[in-house]
Write a structure and sequence with these properties.
The protein is of the alpha+beta class and 161 residues long. It has one domain. It contains three helices and ten strands; from the N terminus they run E-H-H-E-E-E-E-E-E-E-E-E-H. The radius of gyration is 18 Å and the shape is elongated.
Length: 161
């Protein structure tokens, strides 16, 4: 049995994505108007940046019997259920948090580091709906629209197997 959860975009992601997209498009148009070869290349680079980042948009999450799928625009990232030790809904409140990866251009994805969790993977759209998945040697943070239901359904599916 499969259960799908949409990815709710929090206000921070909406604001950052809108500002970054609008800023890149505005500068790209200004570069195209200049008409020089280097300006056209810069404009094309900015357009490619927007399109490239859009490909990593997180659309939702699906619980399957053997995996949790993180849906992007053209593909899904597979998180195996084998070895999953726990899933917990709640904030990650580190004093120190270092982000490596996409920080608000259609998702918060990549890697984060904090002293409590170490290096962990993130696939987030809303920092208020974090589900932390713990494996023996790693952790993954996701943000389904209904996090409490997601954790409950993940536990129910584990018991049914």
């Amino acid at each position: 049995m499969q259960k799908h959860y949409s990815a709710h975009w929090g206000w921070l992601l909406i604001v950052l994505s809108t500002l970054l997209t609008a800023g890149c498009m505005w500068v790209a148009v200004a570069e195209f108007k200049q008409g020089s070869t280097s300006s056209i290349w810069m404009g094309l680079y900015l357009l490619a940046l927007v399109v490239g980042c859009a490909l990593f948009t997180i659309r939702g999450y699906t619980i399957t019997p053997d995996a949790i799928l993180v849906h992007r625009l053209l593909w899904a990232t597979r998180l195996p259920r084998a070895g999953l030790q726990s899933a917990q809904f709640g904030p990650i409140r580190p004093r120190i948090n270092i982000r490596i990866g996409n920080g608000g251009f259609f998702s918060f994805s990549g890697w984060n580091y904090n002293p409590r969790l170490g290096l962990y993977r993130v696939f987030l759209t809303d920092h208020r709906r974090i589900v932390l998945l713990r494996y023996p040697n790693r952790a993954v943070a996701i943000s389904p629209a209904a996090p409490e239901e997601f954790v409950r359904d993940l536990a129910l599916a584990s018991h049914a197997a």
